[in-house]
Amino acid sequence: MEFLFDDGPIIACSTGQYSNAAISLIRISGFEELSCFNNCFGSESFKPTPKMAEFKKLYNLKGSVLDEVVVNFFKAPHSYTGENILEIGVHGNLLNVQRIIDFFEQNLNFRVACPGEFTYRALKNKKMTLTQVEGLDLLLNAQSNFALDQGQSILSGSLNSELSSLHHNYLKLRAALELSIDFSEDVGEEAVSKEIANWSASLNKLLSGLKSRVSSPIKNILSPQIALVGPVNAGKSSLFNNFLNTNRSIVSSEKGTTRDFISEYINFDGTHYKIVDTAGLRHGESDIEREGIKRSLEVLKDSFYKIFVVNPCDYLGQKFDQLKGEEFDLVVVTHSDVKNGECPNFEFPFKAETTVQFSNTSEANSEMSVDQIMQLVSDKFKRLSESKPILIERQRSLISRAHKLSEEFLVSAKSQNDVAILSSQLYVLGSVIEELVGVVRPDDVLGSIFSNFCIGK
Ligand SMILES: Nc1nc2c(ncn2[C@@H]2O[C@H](COP(=O)(O)OP(=O)(O)O)[C@@H](O)[C@H]2O)c(=O)[nH]1
Ligand SMILES: [Mg+2]
């Protein structure tokens, strides 16, 4: 990332760059002196009071008004980045925003910021820890209130303090081990061994607590997806439309209209669910159909809530071999409004939690409304998020590694008297803990974190 080495003034619009808005916020960070803005805001010298919003006119070099703006100055180090920051609230027409950015870029030599660069500077200037940056990333990309809350709480330092006590514990253990190498004769071997045993047990306890929060998969919680799967003409697209209450998907009585898959987002109980209407399952005759079925199975794999849809009037004992071993949360048996639709004995090769008789055309003939189905989805989502899983992948893998190493260290500490071996084991464990806490930050770690950020943050 080029910005890692350059700390000149940067500029960006921080309030989205894809549509016109009433007001947009342009942020400038890293200028040395306020005097670089002399003449830009109407008076020869520009001396705003820090943290006080001021209404100004912004002029170009020829003295014409570019815009009427509100400026807010944050003096280093008391700013988001730890550098001098000027925030300018401008009229949010995209052309206007671009013209103002161009003005500063061309005349004051400010550089347009890379995605995440403001936050990178905050990290570099120790205004934020690595964990907080990851919390911010989670917050900005959250798909549910749960992820929002976790992002907020990590940002405000909750996980940080847990990780700090982990690091503190590790340092105590390290010190006890050093003591046993250099001063065991002075302190007494028994006392040192006791110290090592105590600190390694408490370190392991902390790591076990964290480990329990990374044990279940989280992809499903970060971007919760509902899959509608089933044979052709089962009523999947009709159900999909019922969920959305729109006609987003083409509903047709001709078999096989939804060849690929269609997805939409629905918001229920504070969570953004992606709902996916898939191609019908049947023995593919053409390559396109085979591809569609393959994709349906992939969608199923990525979904946390799996709904199998079947039309009893059209069920001819199909085997659905592709679904062997699957576990569905719900089977929706459609066409319950059709009186002569006798419900056959289904023989499915998969497990299903609940089965519901349902009509896409008449709510009166349905055992459950669409909202009640969504409630089942929401209940499952709540169950999954109850254990407060840690949502950041980098932390998850480091916690698992640290926990494994700590278990190994515990065993060695009990049976092994060779301090050199213990010491080298602890060294490896320490490097993982320090990476987790953010004491060491390899560039690739930073690269992967900041690649998620938007411009202006
Ligand atoms: N009477 C009745 N017709 C339905 C029901 N569900 C779907 N249909 C009809 O069945 C046909 C196929 O439905 P569609 O949603 O396209 O099935 P898909 O292939 O699974 O997506 C359409 O003509 C729908 O109007 C239902 O519950 N009752
Ligand atoms: Mg369809």
Could you give a quick summary of the protein structure above?
The protein is an alpha/beta fold. Helices cover 42% and strands 16% of the residues.
Features:
six-stranded mixed beta sheet; alpha/beta; binds guanosine-5'-diphosphate; 3 domains; binds magnesium ion; 14 helices; Four Helix Bundle (Hemerythrin (Met), subunit A); Rossmann fold; Gyrase A, domain 2; 457 residues; flat; 12 strands
Written description of the protein model:
This protein is α/β, with parallel strands linked by helices and 457 residues long. The protein has three domains: 2-128, Gyrase A, domain 2, CATH 3.30.1360; 158-216 and 392-437, tRNA modification GTPase MnmE domain 2 (Four Helix Bundle (Hemerythrin (Met), subunit A), Up-down Bundle), CATH 1.20.120.430; 220-386, P-loop containing nucleotide triphosphate hydrolases (Rossmann fold, 3-Layer(aba) Sandwich). Helices cover 42% and strands 16% of the residues. The protein contains 14 helices and twelve strands. The chain has helices at residues 94-107, 117-124, 130-140, 145-155, 158-182, 184-187, 189-212, 219-222, 236-244, 287-302, 370-386, 393-415, 419-437, 443-450, and strands at 10-13, 23-29, 54-59, 65-74, 85-91, 111-112, 225-229, 262-268, 271-277, 305-310, 327-333, 351-357. The strands form two sheets. The protein has a six-stranded mixed sheet with strand order 3-4-5-2-1-6, with helices on one face. A six-stranded mixed sheet has the order 8-9-7-10-11-12, sandwiched between helices. A hairpin with a 2-residue loop joins strand 8 and strand 9. Helix 5 runs antiparallel to helix 13. It is flat. The chain binds guanosine-5'-diphosphate and magnesium ion (MG). The site of magnesium ion has 4 residues, from helix 9.
